[in-house]
Amino acid sequence: MLTQNLNTLKTKDWFRKLACVVGIASAITLISFPVLAKKFYPPYSLFQPYAARSYPYRNSEKSIADTLAQDTKFDNLVYELKQAGLLDTLKQKGQLTIFAPTNEAFKALSKEEYQRYSQKLNRVKVLKYHVVQGLITDKNLNGKEITTLEGQKVKITVKDDTVKLNNATGIHPSTQTKNGVIIEVNRVLLPPGF
Predict the structure, then answer these.
(1) Which one, 87, 151, 174, 183, has least CB within 10 Å?
(2) Residue 184 has what pLDDT?
């Protein structure tokens, strides 16, 4: 009887030690997930939306133009694209990437910048500077420059988990559409020499 009680106590002690080890390992694993995610999903995933179609805030079955039009934070951009005659370009087939300034980004333009921007030719030039033919892949990143429809280049810099497009910051997550990707930016991109 004493031997049986001793064996039972040893078994219980062994299970306690095992539970303690499993608990510590689980805690370490949970704590390390964000660190691992940061390593395996770097910030330039901004340019590669990968969420399933079931995430409506990340993906759209519509064109870039229609997706922008249904989101009120891009009302100024949609209006400006209509004024410039570029909205139909964003409905066409083919893959495009647009750096989409929010309403707040347009409001942040200085009075002088807005006066220059509001001239018809300058408006078209600035808005074309926000559009890139094709999808941006990770080989186009950090320190690289990509050519826009306007003809000039936008420099991409990745630093401290932030993706910068010239002086603007890309806002995660980007949105995959039927004909390309929308990347929200917090500033209006102005071409060099503007």
Answers:
(1) 151
(2) 92
